[in-house]
Write the structure tokens for this entry.
Amino acid sequence: MSFIFRVSFFAMVLLACSTEAFGCTVPVFRYALERWNLSTYDLYVFHSGPLDASLRDKLRLVERAGGNWRLHAVDLRQRLEPALEKLWKKFGQPQRGEPWALLQLAEPNTDPVVLWKGTLNEEALEGVLQSPLQLEIHEQLARGITGVFVLLESGNDVKDRDAWAMIREHLPRFEKQIKLPVQTGEGPELKLPLPLEVRFHSVRLPKEAGKNAWFRHHLLATEDGLAHRDEPILFIVFGRGRLLGSLYGEELNPDHLFRAASFLCGECSCEVKELNPGIDLLFNVDWTHRLSQISISPQPLPPREPTQKSVEMESVLENVSHVDSPASPSSREGEPDRILIRSDYPQIGWLPWATALAGGCVVATGVWAFRSRGRVAERT
């Protein structure tokens, strides 16, 4: 289990003492699916002159899916603003006039995380935004699956086979063993007419990932050091595409697997996404539109109107000489989520006191986890 995952997990256990105040009996996985929007990624495209017509058409095509990303076209013939110039100097690599792109997630009070950079063409764009495995995960989650367990194989046949056998043996047991909270009708209620049951989906992602190569890279980039591990790594995705964390090494075992599965099925003790463990992945899917088609009180859906993102995209593509400035964290529609414990809690009377108490426990837990991590490092 990742260090961040471990600390976050125990933090949530401690914060669970406040569940009675919230009175929320909706399981974490369903609450996340129905209520938590994904954070927005930024795709910067550096170019000199107009974009190729076929590339513009491809951008329009993938944009129509309505994913959690936005385009910033930057014309290198214009004077760049300081933030863009810094990005270009640090990551840019001119390729004989071909557009150069980078994809990043900017987090409050931290350096932006660059997930991908390279020459932008139709093939690269399709690999980043239209991975077959991303589509499979989306379809499973939209059906109400509790969580999707993605095993990244290491290329070591024995380790990969043992890890997969353990997962396939225990997840079906957990489906029968774990009980969901009884829905009392108090507090937040279910919004979707999907079956409320414990169902897990597992999938293998080979080291030679083919069309899923970028998504494999995306998962490995969610935590420092993962790309250098020579062992299978398990990633757990839930909600609308939120990554709970990773399991690997000695901690890829039935006990930790059960704890992660139980967390997804437990009461949503904290309804604020940013106070829950995890980080949002990139999915080129319009979740709002998809879920509106299966709502409990479905309304007749008119022809899909252009969204604000569509209008902005069209403006960017038609006027590629415009220099776009990166949005500040405070102006973003959705804040990125690696900051798991924040100070700007909702002003609910009891919550500051509960949070202060839990915060002290979390510090102690962090010290324990850090020492534990050191012991693991010594053994390895």
The first strand starts at residue 41 and ends at 47.
